[in-house]
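pipeline: protein-struct stage 2 | run 1193 | VOC family protein
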Amino acid sequence: MAENRASAEENTYGEGVPCWVDAQLPDLAAGRRFYGELFGWTFEEAYGGSVWARKDGEAVAGLAHKADGRMPTVWTVYFATPDVVRLSGRIREAGGQVVMAPVALGELGTAALAADPEGAVFGLWQAARHSGFGIRHKPGTFGWAELYARDTETANTFYGGLFTDALFGPDAAPDFGRAPVSDVFPVEMPPHFLVHFRVEDIEPVLGAVQRLGGRVQVPLFETSYGKVAVVTDNQGASFALLQR
């Protein structure tokens, strides 16, 4: 079983900071080919048959086989927490749901899945030997997560109550934001998190996505945090490309 080369003590993330992303894919081998060529990722076996993607030798994402065809093919963002059980209780008290109860993944840490009051799903991660991203904010690595909500005031109240320090504390440098779904997507699109990966030059990467069998879901647009385009991979998992 592989593990992040940086221990949890060496590279910790405060509660509410995005610390990991993974994708559940029907065809793991096809996912490795797509993302390996798109972002220059290399891969190694990890817990339970999943694989870790590495960029410049550092862990940047996970890919796992989707065993249940009824589950969506998606990228999930995980928020760090020192106590996943306690945070799960706070999520319920705030009007959210726990979709998957906390489960220990060997010596790596403990994971859970939750949903906010509007149904947007996100992950929780309590680190043990695996702290999360080895690197981020570099080309080919995690750069941002945007929550597309129907009611941003409700979202601000919910996440602000859960992750006050990460969003509003004196050392806050949030890696996720909130926007109305209708700003980018059709109004019928359900609320969701969209994982963004950094790129140096977005135009050629958009061409590579299509060449590799993916598609452009939302063409290039400007945001307060950079140029963004929403794409899907060759199996239908949506993510965004971000050029700062």
